[in-house]
C-alpha cells in the first residue's frame, strides 16, 4: 500500500507546476485580440472620416474630381493595409491556438496514467524534461540551441520560442545601452504594468536621463532637462528619491562629484592631527 501511494501520480500537483504552459498562450491570445481590435478601430475611424469629408466635398462642389479620386485611392490603400495587418493577427491567432491544442493534449495524456511505473509516464516525463531543457536554454539566451533541440524533438508547440526570443532581443539591446526596445514593450503592455503597479517604464526613462547627463555635452544636457520635465518630474510624488537624485546629478555631474571627493580626501589627509 505504501509503495502504491509513493508511486501514485498526483495530477493536481503536475497541473499546478505546468500552469504557465497553458497560461501564456491565452494571455498572448488576449493581447493579439486587443491589437486586432485597436487596428480595426483606428483604421475604420480614419476611413469613415475621410469618406464623410469626401462625400461632403463632392456634394457641395468644394472637392474636384481629382481630389475625390485621390481620397478614394487613400481609402483603398488604408483598407489594404488593414487587411495585411489583420492577416498577420490571424496567423498569430492560428499559431497560438495550435499551441493550446498541443499543450492540452500533452497534459491530457497524463490524466490517463495513475502511477510512475506506467511505461507511458516514462515517455511523457522524458518529453517534459526535454521541454524544460529548451525552456532553460531560451531563458539563458541560447536561442539557436533551443530551436535546434525543439525541432529535433518535434515540440515547438510545447515551448515559447518566439516569446523568449523577443525577451532576449530586449535584453541584448539593454546590454548595448539602448532602452528603445524595452520602452516599446512597456508601451504594448502598459495596462498590465499599471495593474501590477510596476515602475519599469519610469526606471527606463530614468536610465535614459542618466545616459544623457553622462555625455556632458551642451546639446545632451539640454535634452536631459527636457527629458526630465516630460518623464521624471510628473512622478516626483511617486518616486521622490529618484527625482531628487536626477536633479542632483544635473547640478553635480559625476566628474565634479569625483573632484569634490578627491579634494575632501586631500584636505582630510593634510589636516593636523
Automatic annotation (TrEMBL):
PANTHER family named in the record: E3 UBIQUITIN-PROTEIN TRANSFERASE MAEA, MACROPHAGE ERYTHROBLAST ATTACHER-RELATED
Family recorded in the similarity comment: Belongs to the FYV10 family.
PROSITE patterns: CTLH, LISH
Protein source organism: Coniochaeta hoffmannii
Name of the protein: Protein FYV10
Alphabetical list of Pfam families matching this protein: CTLH
Described function: Involved in the proteasome-dependent degradation of fructose-1,6-bisphosphatase.
One Gene Ontology biological process: proteasome-mediated ubiquitin-dependent protein catabolic process
GO CC aspect terms: cytoplasm; GID complex; nucleus
GO molecular function, one term: ubiquitin-protein transferase activity
Record InterPro entries: CTLH/CRA (IPR024964), CTLH_C (IPR006595), Fyv10_fam (IPR045098), LisH (IPR006594)
Residues in CTLH domain copies: 163-220
